Amino acid sequence: MNETITDPSSADETAAEQAHEGTDAPAAEAAQTAAPAETAGSGEAAEPQDAGERGSEDEDGAESDAESDEERLRRLEEEGDIAADYLEELLDIADLDGDIDIDVDGDRASVEIRGADRLAELNRPKGELLDALQELARLAVQTRTGARSRLMLDIGGFRAEHKGGLEELAASAIAEAKESGQPVPMRPMNPFERKVVHDVAKREGLRSESDGDGKGRHVVIYPTS
User: Fold this and answer.
1) CA 210 to CA 213: how far, in whole Å?
2) Pairing of the two strands 108-114 and 152-155
3) Per-residue CA distances from 134 to 6, 37, 49, 83 (Å)
């Protein structure tokens, strides 16, 4: 396995089950075998909130204020390195090909598995395998650093392919909120999808918040007051 660096972005039963759904046995078994140990005292890892959610904004902002740009970059690069090592081990266990790219995208470490045709096939059409592997990679980082990670994982450009459609969906909800003057709830989304919607709402000058729990968590777009 070749690792390419493009920039100087409990073994959780739930994540393992997600990895098993819609995948073949080797990939699921590999996820269980390579799952990082649960951080002591942390219990079951909670889903990190996306950047647009109230509550996490203050926490993330405080962390950013305490760090210099150089320290933040070094921390995110370390997260990417840890996640890449973990994912490389997982791919080796599952006997799957793939190259790993590490980057920093804004305030997140970004890792992409490229050239993994079999893994990309297993991930489609809903990206459930991607979400499960991302959670396992975040747990691997948390186990090593003791801090929650907001690392983003992609497999063969899956997220990039869906970003355009998500932005169109967000634009439609924003137009509805402006026209009706009422909050517009959107369909349930994963953290990546919610972040895309939050970014579009922010760019258009509207407020957005995430609401709901678990698989029902969704974004609500609010009209300007």
Assistant:
1) 9
2) parallel
3) 19, 15, 14, 9
pLDDT digits (tens, 9 = 90+) for 166-196: 999 999 999 999 999 999 999 999 888 898 9
What pLDDT, on a 0 to 100 scale, did the predictor assign at position 187?
Answer: 95
Helix (H, G, I), strand (E, B) or coil at 98: coil
Six-digit token string for 84: 């890449």
Tokens 């598995």 identify what position?
113
Q: Prior bond to 125 cis, omega within 30?
A: yes
Q: Is residue 1's pLDDT more than 80?
A: no
pLDDT of residue 225: 72
Nearby residues of 14 by Cβ (< 8 Å), 6 or more positions away: 44
Token code pair at residue 102: 């590490």
Token readout for 57 is: 């904004």
Mean pLDDT score, 62-91: 88
Q: Return left, alpha or beta for 106; rule: phi > 0 is left, psi -120 to 50 is alpha, else beta.
A: left
Euclidean distance between CA atoms 114 and 120, whole angstroms: 9
Q: pLDDT value at position 224?
A: 86
Cα distance between residue 50 and residue 122, in whole Å: 26
- List alpha helices for the chain, DSSP H: 13-20, 25-33, 56-66, 69-94, 117-123, 128-145, 158-180, 191-203
Pairing between β-strand 207-211 and β-strand 218-222 as defined by DSSP bridges: antiparallel
pLDDT at 64: 46
Spatial neighbors of 189 by CB under 8 A, at least 6 apart, are: 197, 217, 218, 219
